Amino acid sequence: MLEGYPEKQVRITGIGQSKVGRPSDRSALQLTLDACLQAVEDAGLSVDDIDGLTCHFGKVAEGGGISPVGTIDAMLALGIRPVWTNPSSAEGPGHMGAIFQAVMAVATGLCRHVLVFRTVGQATSRLKSRASTLLTGSRDRVDGGNAFFVPYHAHSPANMWALYAQAYFDKYNVGPEQLGWVAVNGRRHAAHNPNAIYREPITLDDYLASRMISTPLRLYDCDSHIDGSTALVISHKDAAKDLRNPPLAIEAMGMSIGGIGEALHEGDFTSLAAKRAGDMLWQRTDLKPKDVDCAQVYDGFSIHIWLWLEAVGLCAPGEAARFIEGGTRTAIDGELPLNTSGGQLSAGRFHGYGHTHEACTQLWGRGGGRQVQDAQTCMAVNGGYGYGAMLLRRD
User: Fold this and answer.
1) Alpha helices in 314-375 (DSSP H)
2) SS3 379
3) pLDDT 10s digits, 200-241
4) How many other CB atoms are found less than 10 A from the CB of residue 156?
5) Alpha carbons 355 and 352: distance in angstroms, whole number
6) Please, are residues 177 and 207 in contact by the beta-carbon 8 Å criterion?
7) Are 11 and 240 in contact (CB under 8 A)?
8) What is the pLDDT of residue 142?
9) Which residues have CB under 8 Å from 188's CB, separation 6+?
């Protein structure tokens, strides 16, 4: 039965990532080409082999550089003639919507090789206006999901996720002394990532001394706006056999939508609707949480790490804070190496696509000083609004 799931029919065959800037001296389209061409070459393919193309979010005219390049831009600039394209909407399963759509397109026989990319230009936009990355942007009227928050003075996602952090502190009797280890851990690993924005190690004292952004979240609890692009190639398993890299299997995937980010809240602010994504993932594989060698966990804010680890069963409810505390278990040689690239807090905010790139980097043994020894499986999860989770393994 498990072999009938669509993800069993595909493999990841190549990855690419542009040089990350804060800001970059290259345009968003140039960054997109850098990442996409690198991914295609990494797979051992040519642009002519690519017959599917998708991205997240799709091109967004407004939004502070959140998605300045769409599939039409990339198609024309790359010279790709796809038989299938479907840009992901801003909603969906934790920003992984484009990846899941690509999986479905390949598994159903629409195409053989799909190029998936994510481009951001938020660092450049913030130079023009620091308000560009707020929920209000530069608009006088706010609609969509943000209209449920802005009237209550939640002008930034930090205001929303601070609610979760404080609720978790109160329920489980933990505090900033535990949360700070998320940032310390990420920065320690970013020191070995030449493409990370912030590579200088920090201590827990540095974290506690950083300025408050939205109580109880501090500066180092917040991810970093960047300019850059990340891409990957998803191929049919039959077409992947003779390509350059040992193909990486998507052992299982799960998705969910809900939570405060979609104007739908349930629970007590110490858990996420992401649990449904985790439940779905584990129903589609014979592997267990103990079989995960490393994890790349979405960290738009540090509190996401705690909530996601519990949602996908890598920690029991209420245990994530003390699991990470001290940094030993989440070190490169620890029980569960976590966010080995530095994550979004230190490496930069690709809305989770950097996490998938890093998962592949680890499974292909390309991590250098941050490489997890003999990594065979890696979990990649992302999203603070909709939720997506994948368990990748060496094939």
Assistant:
1) 320-324, 343-346, 353-363
2) strand
3) 999 999 999 999 999 999 999 999 999 999 999 999 999 999
4) 19
5) 5
6) no
7) yes
8) 75
9) 201, 327, 331
Q: Name the one residue in this structure whose structure tokens are 């300019």.
A: 227
3-state secondary structure of 311: helix
369 neighbors 383 (Cβ within 8 angstroms): no
Structure token pair of residue 176: 């900033």
The amino acid that residue 172 corresponds to is: Y
For residue 332, the tally of other CB atoms under 10 A from its CB is 18
Rounded CA-CA distance 330/335 in Å is 6
Tokens of 107: 């598994």
Residues in the chain: 395
The DSSP call for residue 21 is B
The rounded distance, in Å, linking the Cα atoms of 282 and 173 is 30
Residue type, 180: G
Distance of CA 113 to the CA centre of its chain: 22
Asked whether the predicted pLDDT for residue 132 surpasses 90, the reply is: no
Q: Is 360 left (phi over 0), alpha (psi -120 to 50) or beta?
A: alpha
| Residues in a beta bridge with 348 | none
Residue 52 to residue 110: CA distance in whole angstroms: 8
What is the bridge-based pairing of β-strands 227-236 and 113-121?
antiparallel
- Per-residue pLDDT tens for 47-103? 999 999 999 888 886 668 888 999 999 999 999 999 999 866 555 566 898 999 999
pLDDT tens profile 160-203: 899 999 999 999 999 999 999 999 999 999 999 999 999 999 99
Q: Give the Cα separation of 64 and 152 in Å (integer).
A: 22
Q: In the structure encoding, which two tokens stand for residue 310, read together?
A: 């519990």
Which helix (DSSP H) or strand (DSSP E) does residue 380 occupy? Answer: strand 377-382
pLDDT, tens only, 102-115: 999 999 999 999 99
Residues 6+ away with beta carbon under 8 Å from 147 = none
Residue with tokens 């990370």: 196
Per-residue pLDDT at 31: 98
pLDDT for 250 equals: 98
Euclidean distance between CA atoms 16 and 124, whole angstroms = 21
Nearest CA among 86, 96, 22, 17 for reference residue 58: 86
What does pTM read for this prediction? Answer: 0.95
Residue matched to tokens 């043994």: 365
Which helix (H) or strand (E) segment holds residue 170: the answer is: helix 157-172
